[in-house]
Amino acid sequence: MTADRRTDTRITTGPLLMDSAAPGLADGFARQALKLSLRVLDLAQVFKRPNDMCQALAQVARAMKALGAFGPAEDYLAQAQRWAAMLPGVDTRVDLLCELAEVCCAMAEAEQTANEHKRHAGRQERERARDHAFEAASLAGQTTDAHWEVKVLLRVSDVLDRCGDHEDAASMQNRAISLMGLAPDGGEAPHDGLRELALAPGSTLLM
To answer: Which pLDDT score, from 0 to 100, does residue 119 have?
Structure first.
């Protein structure tokens, strides 16, 4: 089991996280995007509407991820998840779970690269990535759009494959293929095309 990372809906922003992300980060458009997303988050906090808070927090997380600050990105997505619990339906929650899985997976890969001689480098991050991925997959059938459900399953498949869970990744991909009605009996799954769909730019929901 992974550690319980739940906290309340109070937002941690400002110099503290900017400073924690600063070492090694490139200047330019990525940092400008982070500053802009933090300003948008400040505005969203005035009225604290759940949908606005989810989108603002997710945008900050994406900016952090683009800068390689995976820890803060994970924290912001976790905060967005708590606001998503106040929204009807599961679409936003599922999308954030996919993003959390992808961030944790990227964090695991970075940890493994930095500590390539350590056998268990990135293990905890991979476990969190798997947990988020499987939770997203379990809720995918409750989303409001069948096509979007397919894309969620492909995102989950990609994360699991990167985590080394190749059988589970194939199972998720087959589930997506079945929903799309693509692979006839004995046919070959169009792996490359599906991967491109899963990794299309942008989020499946929160834009």
So the answer is: 76
